[in-house]
Amino acid sequence: MRGSTHTTADTHPPTRTLGHWIDGKPAESTSGRHAPVYNPATGAADKRVALASAEEVDGAVAAAKAAHATWRTSSLAARTAILFRYRALLDAHRDEIAALITAEHGKVHSDALGEVARGLEIVELACAIPEKLKGELSTQVSTRVDVASVRQPLGVVAGITPFNFPAMVPMWMFPVAIACGNTFILKPSEKDPSAALRLAELASEAGLPDGVLNLVQGDKVAVDRLLEHPDVAAVSFVGSTPIARYVQLKAVEHGKRVQALGGAKNHMLVLPDADLDFAADQAVNAAYGSAGERCMAVSVVVAVGDTGDALVRRIADRARALRIGPGDDPASEMGPLITREHRDKVASYVAGARAQGAEVVVDGTEYPAPAGHEDGFFLGVSLLDHVPVTADAYQDEIFGPVLCVVRAETYEEAVELINSSRWGNGTAIFTRDGGAARRFQLEVEAGMVGVNVPIPVPVGHHSFGGWKESLFGDLHVYGNDGVAFYTRGKVITTRWPDPADAGINLGFPSNS
Ligand code: NAD
């Protein structure tokens, strides 16, 4: 299935250019720079995306800054009325947005619909912003003195997002940010930019004032300008660990608040008392769903005690039966990978793992491309057993349909392995033992933990974020942390004096 040097993209130049969305309307790029946007199922690039210059970013920031003056003082009722309309519009366009995701990312339609649904949760959270921004009041802290703590917006804030959730991850950010009274610049992934562009258009259709939500297409040039721009107060980033680390350092250097979510290597621990059929189902879903291109994908199963052989057999049977094909075919359970280069890199880990001592139980590199899609970026699923922890397949985030199995003698050994990982995004335990599950919750070093739940992505009113090299910064995204990130506290101490209080007193104010 590999080895083809010819690509449809070479023979069919792009017919459509995707531009920016600035100040409530489309904005054509003036940079003269573009990147191809592929349909991973066909390998064709019939679209291209603009790559903004620093000056174009400046234009978007200026629009956002101008809009902030009135948006920050708009009533909560006015903001939530727009957000409720936005929610209804997104709901009505679920299918269309999911189709855009499938056409550029490759994931199957049902998975893309799931992504839109999880993004909608955050719009629903934003609809509840009056509840989240209620603040605190203490009356009579001193005689005739009250203290109120309120939270106010930061100003212009930016979001930089990855390819793997082209609608959901932007929706983790901008609905909360704008509900809090900020204006927003979104820089989506240049690999699959159409879904985010549609989200911005629909926000305007819902009545969001011009300039409140802006979208700039681009690459490192746009990211760097956002990180340097003096009028950008805060940056949310989601992507790979090296870029997350870079974004955090550069944003801090320029005096910005930053949350930068990075990569992951999520371990699923299976204890001997677990229901092995259930665990195998869940491992397959979580390892190979979305072709493994999820930051919460399970990429390592840690089989404890004598579960290994029986579990691997069950996973292998299920993995071999998966139907791989174009995402818009309802029969497909898994689609292609995002680019040809990424597909080939993922495939190279399978051969590498074999050379480094792993047993290749299922070899996805031998899977034939679906008929009629020979130029698509398809790869079968791979299952690697007895993977040495020194192997690259264990050490690196592969971000593809490759599941590693490692064996551990005891629960303690398994937890020590998980805790020695440089990442700490999500993890899960599969067991029937409540005591072991409770101990795992307390001991494991990861930001999101599942008990018999392989992909524990928190619901919208909780917050999403990892530990260690999976998150640079302090606050997680959405939920209460999201509201805290996009606002700053102000404490107001008020006295309405009684005429009897008059008089000079140079002493330090004390409470009485
Ligand atoms: P990426 O880091 O390559 O790109 C993310 C964003 O950064 C994109 O908008 C891209 O244009 C920009 N970018 C890329 N290179 C840059 C550079 N040198 N300087 C400045 N900006 C740059 O990530 P990706 O390949 O799009 O997404 C996959 C990665 O994202 C995986 O590592 C995955 O684990 C991670 N991810 C993490 C989470 C999470 O919540 N922790 C969620 C989704 C994805």
Total number of helical segments? 17
Secondary structure tally: strands: 23
Q: Look at the structure and give the mean pLDDT.
A: 96
Instruction: Characterize the main sheet.
Output: 7 strands, mixed
Query: Structural class of the secondary elements?
Result: alpha/beta
The end-to-end distance, rounded to whole angstroms, is: 81 Å
- Identify the bound ligands: nicotinamide-adenine-dinucleotide
Keywords: NAD, Oxidoreductase
Protein name: methylmalonate-semialdehyde dehydrogenase (CoA acylating)
Pfam family, one: Aldedh
EC number: 1.2.1.27
Characterize the structure shown.
The structure is a single chain. This protein is α/β, with parallel strands linked by helices and 512 residues long. It has 2 domains: 16-262 and 470-491, Aldehyde Dehydrogenase, Chain A, domain 1 (3-Layer(aba) Sandwich); 266-451, Aldehyde Dehydrogenase, Chain A, domain 2, CATH 3.40.309.10. Helices cover 38% and strands 22% of the residues. It has 17 helices and 23 strands. It has a 7-stranded mixed sheet, sandwiched between helices. A 6-stranded mixed sheet has the order 10-9-8-11-12-22, sandwiched between helices. A 3-stranded mixed sheet has the order 1-5-4. Strand 11 (232-238), helix 10 and strand 12 (257-261) form a beta-alpha-beta unit. Helix 11 packs across helix 12. The radius of gyration is 25 Å and the shape is globular. The N and C termini lie far apart (81 Å).
Structure keywords:
512 residues; alpha/beta; Aldehyde Dehydrogenase, Chain A, domain 1; Aldehyde Dehydrogenase, Chain A, domain 2; six-stranded mixed β-sheet; 17 helices; 23 strands; globular; disordered N terminus; binds nicotinamide-adenine-dinucleotide; Ald_DH_C; oxidoreductase
